[in-house]
Design goal:
Elements lengths: L1 H21 L5 H6 L9 H13 L3 H19 L4 H22 L4 H67 L9 H22 L10 H11 L1 H10 L10
Helix pairs in contact: 1-6, 3-4, 3-5, 4-5, 5-6, 6-7, 6-9, 7-8, 8-9
């Protein structure tokens, strides 16, 4: 039974190392170094166990102190970052595994409990690697989608450029000689028919032009607010009364 627990622990440690090595984490080498705590004769783990044994002669008391400390330490230090969490967690796993081996002859039930702690921690570490890798992958996918949407939006906007230029041309061409358009909406309605003919012709030439001819007036008025060049044409041709903003 002892060999089974030890073998399972070694397999889990090897799987965790492979998982870390295949990950894209920039600090994975630091995490891999922490796997040294899982080795049978790790000096740091051995010293920690010896210190507790020297303080607490009875093995059940010693186990209670070790279990309490190394269950809490990874959680308390988790705020320091993932690297620190892994370091503490791997140390705890190595410590619980060592304690299980040492106490097996005196108290097999306690040893099994310690082995289970060690394996649980390694499973949690593997889960953390997988989970964070999924998050990193999702970030890459999301960024790709965002860039694609940005490029798509830019490409779509380029289709509108000839139409906006035609709006500007028609506003300047048809501006009333008595001082300009009374309102934006009046100007948009005045150029609607000519603009509709232009857009219809453009759609024959450019299938990417997604512009509803039934909403031309609303579109022209909106461009007058949002597009700097169309807005400038409006400001040059629409009459503005003193004390009032451009309507």
């Amino acid at each position: 039974m002892l060999k089974i627990f030890c073998s399972e622990f070694e397999v889990q440690g090897e799987d965790l190392q492979k998982l870390l090595e295949s990950s894209e984490w920039p600090f994975k080498n630091a995490l891999i170094e922490g796997l040294a705590f899982l080795e049978k004769d790790n000096d740091d783990v051995r010293d920690e166990v010896l210190q507790h044994r020297s303080r607490y002669i009875e093995h059940d008391v010693c186990w209670q102190k070790l279990e309490l400390k190394w269950t809490c330490v990874p959680m308390m230090n988790s705020a320091l970052g993932l690297k620190q969490f892994f370091k503490d967690a791997l140390f705890a796993a190595g410590l619980f595994q060592r304690w299980g081996r040492e106490i097996w002859g005196a108290d097999p039930a306690m040893a099994v409990e310690s082995f289970l702690h060690a394996n649980r921690i390694l499973n949690e570490c593997r889960g953390s690697v997988n989970f964070n890798q999924l998050i990193d992958d999702e970030k890459i996918i999301s960024e790709g989608r965002r860039q694609s949407a940005k490029k798509g939006g830019k490409a779509k906007a380029e289709h509108y450029i000839p139409v906006k230029k035609e709006v500007i041309r028609l506003l300047l061409k048809n501006v009333p000689s008595d001082g300009g358009w009374q309102k934006r909406i009046v100007a948009a309605r005045a150029i609607e028919q000519e603009l509709m003919n232009f857009v219809t012709e453009m759609k024959h030439q450019n299938s990417g032009l997604d512009l509803n001819v039934d909403e031309l007036i609303e579109t022209v008025v909106r461009w007058g607010r949002e597009d700097s060049e169309v807005r400038a044409a409006y400001e040059a041709t629409v009459r503005v009364k003193v004390g009032k903003k451009l309507a």
